[in-house]
Amino acid sequence: MIPTDIFPPRIRLASIPTPLQKMERLSRQVGVEIFFKRDDFTGSELSGNKVRKLEFLLADALSKDADTVITCGGAQSNHCRATALAAVRAGLSSLLLLRTDDPANPPTVSGNILLDRLAGSEIVWITPEQYRAREEIFEREAQRLRNEGREPFIIPEGGSTALGAWGYVAEMQELVRDLNHLDGGDAKPTTVVCATGSGGTTAGLALGARLSDAAIRVAGVNVCDDRDYFVAVIDDICRKFNDTWLPGNSAGIPPYEIVDGYVGRGYALSRPEELVAIRDLVRLEGVVLDPVYTGKAYFGMIAELAKNPKRFGDRVVFIHTGGLFGLFPIAEQFAGLV
């Protein structure tokens, strides 16, 4: 296992360990063992993968005497919602840069946006074009807060930094224990499949698999951009992680795979077949996915398995990274499906 003395400081926010559950009917249907690591159980308000990263990121914010965290995402960002709520628990305020086509007419207060508002977050609406220059807007808003006598702490998109990756290094250690218990200490080869939206979760899982010396392969299904983009992002996170916590490490970038081709209509835009997959899983296993991350990643996984049931080997663990609140704003898209 990973030596505890190399872990950076963290605060406890997530309800962990999360369960590892076998999807019995789904396994029979696709012809391979499929388990879900239920990171949607990390907490009701904080549900999902982001809270694991925030345990380390907010510990760093508190060590720097910050009073306000600034982060960014799409209008229905799970990361921003988790940050807003986690900030409250840590005694901090939050400012969210949320992306929308028309900032003068932002989306209705529903889903994650409602929770952002309930948490008291200050929301700054920006266009997709402005979002591409979000680093400049981060600095502008941070300086405004400093001018008001406050101390800001910036958390990049998705909390996907070398420090944030520790959340999923720790999760991989947890998963290794799950699998060892399942297999009686002789864990068989397993592929972990997750949604890849900003790269930090995939990077952390790959780093964790290597540090745990586990026979676990990591595959991320990208829900936006493309393979080349995420290889660059994930490799950069891994290099910075190695340079900071594993100086002199000669192993380099850990292995992982990006399963491209399932972005569909684009980030946070659903195709009917993706929504059908979400519906069918609810009716098969009683498990609810979200349309932005887990729904697309799950659709990609089962599409790959339909082409080749051994695509990911004999056993697959799908990381359920939450996102339930994102279903409610698109309820009308399920008309005719339910």
3D architecture notes:
- The structure is a single chain.
- The chain is of the alpha/beta class and 338 residues long.
- Helices cover 41% and strands 16% of the residues.
- The strands form 2 sheets. The chain has a 6-stranded mixed beta sheet, with helices on both faces. A 4-stranded parallel beta sheet has the order 5-4-3-6, sandwiched between helices.
- Strand 4 (93-99), helix 4 (111-118) and strand 5 form a beta-alpha-beta unit.
- The chain is globular, with a radius of gyration of 19 Å.
- The protein starts with 19 loop residues before the first strand and ends in an 18-residue tail after the last strand.
Any key phrases for this structure?
338 residues, alpha/beta, 6-stranded mixed β-sheet, 4-stranded parallel β-sheet, 11 helices, globular
Helix content: 40-55%
Strand order of the largest sheet: 1-2-10-7-8-9
Biggest β-sheet strands, sense, barrel: 6 strands, mixed
Let me know the average pLDDT: 96
Radius of gyration: 19 Å
General shape: globular
Number of helices in the DSSP assignment: 11
H and E string: EHEHEHEHEHHEHEHEHEHHE
Q: What gap, in angstroms, lies between the N and C termini?
A: 45 Å
Task: Indicate the structural class.
Answer: alpha/beta
Query: Strand-residue fraction?
Result: 15-25%
Quantity of strands, as a count: 10
Low-confidence stretches: none
Short description:
The protein has helices at 24-30, 50-63, 78-89, 111-118, 128-132, 134-147, 166-183, 200-211, 227-245, 272-285, 294-307, and strands spanning 20-22, 33-38, 68-74, 93-99, 122-126, 152-154, 190-196, 216-222, 257-259, 315-320. The protein is an alpha/beta fold.
